[in-house]
Specification:
With 696 residues, this protein is mostly beta strands. Helices cover 7% and strands 43% of the residues. The strands form five sheets. Strands 3-4-6-8-11-14-17-20-23-26-28-30-32-34-36-38 form a 16-stranded mixed sheet, with no helix packed on it.
């Protein structure tokens, strides 16, 4: 929900080019990214490519990364014996008590148990060090069990059929007190790869589980991490090709950290299975987070609350700015590491091209400081804040997106729905073009000319307590199917836009309250109808529209109480007569309240009419006069008319004396706090001489 704003602006060509997958560039994207970086440059890597192709251009796997066989090679065996080790082979190994130092490249096979010791890789030559864990159990009370201090590259291979354990202590002791590394149970200053098919159990009691200061690749293995802070860290790159990763983290689950180079700090996942439970972010990339495939179960910040407080059914308090971060006390609202608890997060872009993702987060489920692109995959998310949020732009070009719980379902400055199957449940706005850093709330009115919701295909069902489709700027729909089960309170509308809504194709039906109801703009080339009933209809009451020959246009059963219904369909023709019915039933197939095929029967005729304009306003008496303002929005405080029976969206108490206004605001505050019901609030307001449209 937001404050209304006067003004009517035509859609400009630049607003139509907000999504990178269409080959357009949005000049606002780079401004929204971190000013210290040219991070938005990476958006051009997506183009019309598949996400896997983008990953393949960014990430390469050498033979060393994928090869885990060692028995046919020359290798050095290191047998751990509790307090020390025995080494056999050509590799140079230095054993000093429980500290085993590898000095040359080659293959080293570790087995046995080492108590309070360390495997230190500090090579003096070039080449790859392959460390084969063949049933190894290594603990260290005051440092990293495996420390790659100096090497060109290290590969840790997990031998098939073995279980390997690494564990550190809660405090580290450094030779130089100014040092802060190593700080992880496995810590590498060089490129690190983990492969194989065995199991690795890591307990990072001091800080992190596994960390590389360069690039970290996972090409296989069953990895289980329990970390005091972060689970997996790759500074420049964290890439996963396959494997199984389970993380329980006191900080972030998986992260990249390079914020100095816009081409680095990438997380790229081609496949694998991930089960992540994190106090902070589930997966967090400093630049790009690219997912081509995989099976993800992510819980961050303790998961979404059972209910999102102070949302459902509350009436707006005139003159009071409502910021979602202030309202939503159950969700974390800032991007600082200590407070952020998002499911997926990236500073530049999140791109999802496949996989199955189940996310339960106290903060945004999917978040980008710049852009989000979804081309395929199955996303099932529950959030205590936004389901999917990007500061600059969101594009869906495929996939199944199911936001089961959220404050706002999908939010960005520019949203393009090109393809995909989308279901959104929101305690406030369903699909919201607001923009900015988590920029919902009533005061988000900046840069509205660049705010755009574009629907060119796909299927979207929105169930919202606030506005259904909400744009601080404009809306354009050219194709696709959209169903809105909108708000029941008159302070919100099923459709809500500030500038224009040009409807030229597709099918849209939106049911909800009538106080702030809007239709499409009169400049639309596809015809539409907005019906306002004299009284609220109960949830499940059928609304049916057919032409003069009995051909059905739409049969719909709204999920919640409603008083207005907006319908736009290619079947609506100018100079053609139609009849709208209420109640009755249908024998057709029902999905999200919309019936296909079948017969409508036993309904009650409400009104007959003929379409003569692009937007037809109806009530039970017939066609009403056209309304001024964008889409027939109510009186905006500038002297323009509002739809008959509409609620002024500005200061609805403007004509009251100060004492009465104060009493009214106190009543609405009580309703918002839950100390009185909606009906009790309306009754008390009526006693003050204030009635809402549709109030009985």
């Amino acid at each position: 929900m937001k404050k209304r704003k006067s003004g009517f602006t035509r859609i400009t060509t630049s607003l139509m080019c907000t999504a990178v997958l269409f080959g357009c560039s949005n000049g606002t994207e780079s401004k929204e990214a971190d000013s210290s970086q040219t991070k938005a440059e990476s958006l051009s890597t997506i183009g019309n490519q598949k996400i896997i192709d983008v990953i393949n251009k960014k990430v390469t796997y050498d033979k060393d990364d994928l090869y885990s066989d060692w028995k046919s090679e020359n290798y050095t065996s290191i047998q751990l014996n509790g307090t020390g080790a025995n080494a056999e082979g050509d590799g140079e190994v230095q054993i000093d008590g429980s500290t085993i130092t590898i000095k040359t490249a080659g293959i080293y096979v570790l087995s046995g148990k080492l108590n309070d010791g360390q495997i230190n890789i500090d090579t003096e030559d070039k080449g790859t060090v392959r460390l084969v864990l063949n049933g190894a159990n290594i603990t260290s009370s005051d440092n990293a069990p495996i420390y790659v201090k100096n090497a060109e590259k290290t590969v840790i291979s997990l031998q098939k059929g073995t279980e390997n354990h690494l564990s550190d202590g809660e405090k580290y002791v450094y030779e130089d007190s100014s040092e802060e590394e190593p700080d992880s149970a496995i810590f590498s200053k060089a490129d690190l790869t983990i492969n194989g098919s065995g199991k690795l159990i890591v307990n990072g009691n001091y800080n992190n589980g596994i960390a590389s200061k360069d690039e970290l690749r996972i090409a296989g293995g069953n990895i289980q991490i329990d970390a005091a802070d972060d689970g997996l860290i790759g500074r420049d790159l964290l890439a996963v090709k396959e494997g199984s990763v389970t993380i329980n983290a006191g900080g972030d689950g998986i992260k990249s950290t390079n914020d100095k180079d816009a081409s680095k700090g990438v997380i790229a996942i081609e496949g694998g299975t991930f089960n992540i439970k994190a106090v902070n972010d589930g997966i967090q990339a400093e630049t790009s987070l690219l997912i081509a495939d995989g099976d993800f179960t992510i819980s961050s910040g303790g998961g979404s609350p059972e209910t999102i407080a102070n949302r459902e059914g509350s009436m707006p308090v005139p003159g009071q700015e409502q910021d979602k971060e202030q309202e939503n006390t159950t969700a974390t609202s800032t991007d600082t590491e200590s407070e952020s608890a998002k499911g997926l997060k990236a500073a530049v872009e999140v791109a999802i091209g496949g996989g199955t993702l189940k996310i339960d987060s106290s903060d945004d489920a999917v978040h980008s400081n710049n852009s989000i692109t979804i081309t395929d995959g199955d996303l099932n998310v529950a959030s205590g804040d936004d389901g999917i949020h990007a500061d600059s732009s969101i594009l869906t070009k495929g996939g199944n997106i199911n936001v089961t719980k959220s404050y706002e379902g999908i939010e960005s400055k520019a949203i393009t729905i090109a393809e995909g199957n989308i279901h959104v449940n929101a305690s406030d706005d369903g699909i919201n073009v607001g923009g900015g850093n988590d920029g919902s709330g009533m005061d988000m009115q900046a840069d509205t000319e660049d705010s755009m919701l574009t629907i060119s295909g796909g299927y979207a069902y929105v169930n919202s307590q606030g506005d259904g489709l909400d744009s601080n700027g404009s809306i354009s729909m050219t194709d696709g199917t959209v169903i809105v089960s909108g708000p029941t309170m008159n302070g919100n509308g099923s459709l809500d836009y500030d500038q224009s809504f040009e409807m030229s194709g597709g099918f849209l039906i939106a049911a909800g309250s009538s106080g702030m109801a809007q239709a499409a703009s009169e400049e639309s080339t596809q015809n539409s109808v907005l019906m306002t009933f004299s009284e609220t209809k109960s949830a499940g009451t059928v609304v049916h529209l057919e032409d003069s020959e009995g051909n059905g246009i739409v049969t719909f059963t709204p999920e919640k109480d409603y008083q207005s219904v907006f319908i736009s369909s290619p079947k609506l023709k100018k100079d053609t007569s139609y009849t709208l019915y209420s109640e009755g039933s249908s024998t057709g197939n029902e999905k999200d309240g919309l019936y296909t095929d079948g017969d409508y029967q036993d309904g009650t005729k409400v009104v007959e009419f003929k379409i003569s304009d692009s937007v037809t306003w109806l009530d039970e008496s017939g066609i009403t006069t056209a309304k001024s303002g964008p889409g027939g929005m109510g009186n905006r405080g500038d002297g323009q008319a509002r739809p008959e029976g509409g609620t002024p969206p500005g200061d609805m108490f403007g004509d009251l004396d100060d004492e009465t206004k104060e009493k009214a605001q106190a009543i609405m505050e009580k309703e918002r706090a839950g100390t009185i019901t909606r009906e009790e609030a309306q009754t008390q307001l009526k006693e003050l001489g204030i009635e809402f449209p549709g109030q009985k």
